[in-house]
Specification:
39% helix, Enolase-like, domain 1, 6 helices, 179 residues
């Protein structure tokens, strides 16, 4: 899926998101999981291509035709596969989605959530300019995002943070910074 603008961090740049979708089924029910690690192994050792291969060749065969009664059992079936956390997460998400459907309950309730409403945040990578970032944050605030996550890298760090905090002094505590 192409991004509206390139996502830039200290780990590199991406102009598209590649996702691996996993479907688990039982009877008439199916659960879906998704994992969208980077296209290249820059952020972690995994990338979309390796995640797909690990899912297809190693995880799926261990789960095929199994009746898995708990998330813990799922984890034990794939525990001998080292690393590959993104690939494993897609199956975990699919299992929980399927389990909730089998219970005829919304997933948020099965997971112990208190509300069907989830507050969302906006995530911003390195942009062409700080004014562009400030405009994007303003738009996110207008759209109701309650948190902002800022990515940074050398050359896009302290000066950017100072300018953003000066522009949004009342919401500075809502910013989360990651390399």
């Amino acid at each position: 899926m192409p991004l509206i603008y390139p996502f830039r961090t200290a780990f590199g740049n991406d102009e598209i998101i590649e996702s691996v979708l996993v479907q688990l089924s039982s009877g008439d029910n199916c659960g879906w999981g998704e994992s969208a690690c980077w296209r290249a192994p820059a952020y972690s050792p995994e990338c979309a291509a390796t995640q797909f291969v690990i899912s297809r060749d190693f995880i799926a065969p261990r789960l095929l035709n199994q009746r898995i009664s708990s998330g813990k059992e799922l984890q034990s079936l794939i525990a001998s596969i080292k690393g590959n956390y993104f690939a494993k997460a897609a199956f975990d998400l699919a299992w929980w989605d399927l389990f909730a459907k089998e219970q005829n309950q919304p997933l948020w309730k099965v997971l112990g959530g208190q509300s069907s409403v989830v507050s969302a945040g906006a995530d911003f990578g390195v942009m062409e300019s700080v004014p562009q970032l400030i405009e994007s944050i303003s738009q996110a605030n207008e759209q109701g995002y309650e948190r902002v996550k800022l990515k940074y890298r050398p050359g896009w760090d302290l000066s950017m943070i100072k300018q953003v905090r000066a522009e949004f002094p009342d919401t500075a505590r809502l910013f989360h910074l990651t390399v």
